[in-house]
Specification:
With 251 residues, the protein is mainly alpha-helical. The chain is built from 14 helices and no strands. The radius of gyration is 19 Å and the shape is globular.
Length: 251
């Protein structure tokens, strides 16, 4: 029989390659060292700190800074200001983003073109053109992604938003569990392993970069950052994805 704590960790692990990332998760895993031994020995309680992925700060200055950072992220990256805007953002990712739909439209368009025409079309565009970046990303990854494409981008970010929503009190625990149950099943049904899911999620992140208004970062730096984030999720010995089975029975 599968330990219920393992199921909980599996579900929250889907947010490791979200916009928010897994920095807090790794801090918490290190804090409860040896995390996996304690879990396997039944000596680890899955607290809200673990579920939300936000390390508890006892120092007031650090706690206030943490709260400020989270609020800034929610407002500037997700346009979440209150419970109503939170629900709107959550439903947007839960029901399928226009980023996912746009990627699929371009993937269908790209695959209909012969290689020579496809390359000619992309090379005809200015490298500073958004369309050039979008088509280049689709062209680079469409063959290695499964039929679900970048659906993992929606799932990963939706899980992350649920975790932040639980932390802020926007979601009750039973609502949180209900959303994650659905998202986890959707992930398993559409991807064959964490590697495939993580890659699709990161490709979605890269594809979404040009849609962020007034973005104040370098695109090449973003590529390095998100690919390193994926590498860490897949290779760090303490990572959720290194210690959990993709085919875990979630029922």
């Amino acid at each position: 029989m599968v330990n219920e704590n393992i199921r909980k960790l599996w579900k929250i692990s889907l947010s490791m390659t979200s916009i928010w990332g897994a920095k807090g998760d790794f801090e918490i895993i290190d804090k409860f060292h040896p995390f996996w031994k304690k879990l396997n020995d039944g000596k680890l309680t899955i607290t809200n700190e673990i579920l939300c992925g936000i390390p508890e700060e006892t120092n007031k200055i650090l706690r206030d800074r943490q709260t400020s950072d989270i609020r800034y992220f929610l407002m500037n990256r997700l346009q979440i200001y209150d419970e109503n805007s939170f629900k709107n953002c959550l439903n947007y990712f839960f029901n399928g983003t226009d980023i996912n739909r746009s990627f699929e439209e371009k993937r269908i368009f790209i695959t209909a073109l012969p290689d020579k025409e496809r390359k000619a079309l992309i090379n005809s565009l200015s490298k500073n053109n958004k369309e050039y970046i979008w088509l280049s990303i689709v062209n680079q990854y469409y063959k290695v992604l499964p039929k679900a494409g970048i659906l993992a981008y929606d799932i990963s970010n939706c899980v992350s938003i649920c975790r932040l929503g639980l932390y802020h009190g926007y979601l009750k625990e039973f609502e949180f569990a209900s959303y994650l149950d659905t998202l986890a099943i959707k992930a398993q049904e559409n991807y064959s392993n964490f590697e495939e899911f993580g890659l699709a999620s990161v490709v979605g992140l890269l594809y979404s970069m040009e849609r962020i208004p007034n973005r104040a970062f370098d695109y090449d730096a973003a590529i390095i950052y998100y690919t390193e984030m994926l590498k860490l999720a897949l290779t760090h010995p303490q990572s959720y994805w290194r210690n959990l089975d993709w085919k875990l029975d979630l029922s």
